[in-house]
Amino acid sequence: MPSAFIIGADASGEVRFWHCSSRKCLVALNEDRVQTMSMAFSGLGDKFVTVGADPKVFVYDLKTKKRIAELEATYVHARRHTLV
What we know:
Blueprint: E1 5-9, E2 14-19, E3 24-30, E4 36-41, E5 47-52, E6 56-61, E7 66-75, E8 81-83
Antiparallel strand pairs: 1-2, 2-3, 4-5, 5-6, 6-7, 7-8
C-alpha cells in the first residue's frame, strides 16, 4: 500500500482506500451493512475498526484488508452497550 492514502467509509456500507496523488480507489471493501458510520485505527496502525448503524464492530488487518474479527454489542440496560 502506498504511504499516501486515505481511507473513507460511506453510507452505502463500503470502505475505500484512496491513493492521494492519483485520486484512484485502490481497494473497496463491502461491509454487508446498511451504513458505516465511523472508523478508527489501532495504536500501532496495523488494524482498523468500523462501526455502523447496526450493533456490530468489524476489525480489519490493514496490511491484508481482510476482516479478522466481528464483535457485536448486546444491550444490557437502557442506553448501555457491552461488547461480547
